[in-house]
Design a protein that fits this description.
Residues 37-273 form the ABC transmembrane type-2 domain. It is a multi-pass membrane protein. Keywords: Cell membrane, Membrane, Transmembrane, Transmembrane helix, Transport. Belongs to the ABC-2 integral membrane protein family. It is a single chain. This protein is an all-alpha fold. The protein has one domain (25-62, 69-272). The protein is 70% helix and 1% strand. The protein contains ten helices and two strands, in the order H-H-E-E-H-H-H-H-H-H-H-H. The protein has helices at 21-36, 39-61, 73-104, 108-111, 117-144, 156-180, 184-200, 213-219, 223-236, 244-272, and strands at residues 67-68, 71-72. Strands 1-2 form a two-stranded antiparallel ribbon. Helix 9 (223-236) crosses helix 10. The chain is elongated. The N and C termini lie far apart (48 Å). The relative contact order is 0.14.
Amino acid sequence: MERPNRPFPPRGEPVITGINGIGLWSLYLKEVRRFLKVQTQTVWAPAVTTLLFLVIFSVALGRSGREVLGVPFASFVAPGLIVMGMMQNAFANSSFSFLSGKIQGTIIDLLMPPLSNGELMAGIVGAAITRAMMVGCAVSLAMAFYPGVDLSVEHGWAVIWFGLMGAVMLALGGLLASIWAEKFDHNAAVTNFVVAPLSLLSGTFYVIDNLAPAFQAISRFNPFFYVISGFRYGFLGESDIGDGSTAVVQAAAGLGVFNLVLAIVAYRVLQSGWKIKQ
């Protein structure tokens, strides 16, 4: 019996329509397995480093029963350190994928499969968020055994939302940085001169009310400030974003809009093929 003659689709017309679920899941698993192979470095080492921050600053600044926002200093600084570690590792994970491929010449392994730009972005960002969540759990576990730290949750929605928004923001930022960078030095420059200062000067170790009015205004233009203060609000029920829960809700909505705009920018840059296909 002869098989029916089925012509090939015209050149440039996609064969897979809709969402390529298998391809997206495969890319996500590839990225997750990549950082899990070296989980001592990618998950547990950040927990140790963040715990050292807590030890140093709680000893240096938390002596004599010092309290901030009505809680001991160690309990105040712990949530900020947790979400800071999550954001930094989300950036590190997403920025490595494209950049290593561009430098090693294996970028074709990401561009060749039948994945749309949105699916490619979703797979890389999703894996970065997964690493951020694992780091957050590891840091929380380490801090739970530190004397003087209380990680009781007052508002679970704030912990989940601000933690997720922080991870998404830095994952998208890492993707944009890896597209722009041409060598590891460029990516390290973004980490050292953009990510690290914005995270350390965002109210992780202090409340912005202690700053001069001019620096308070500058801090309020820093999206890291809203992530850290909102995440802290989920644990303590208090924040320095503004008076009452209304300011926290407004900050949560603002971060959602900011990440949406950042995602559109990342998609457009990825779609253009700038520094990838050119």
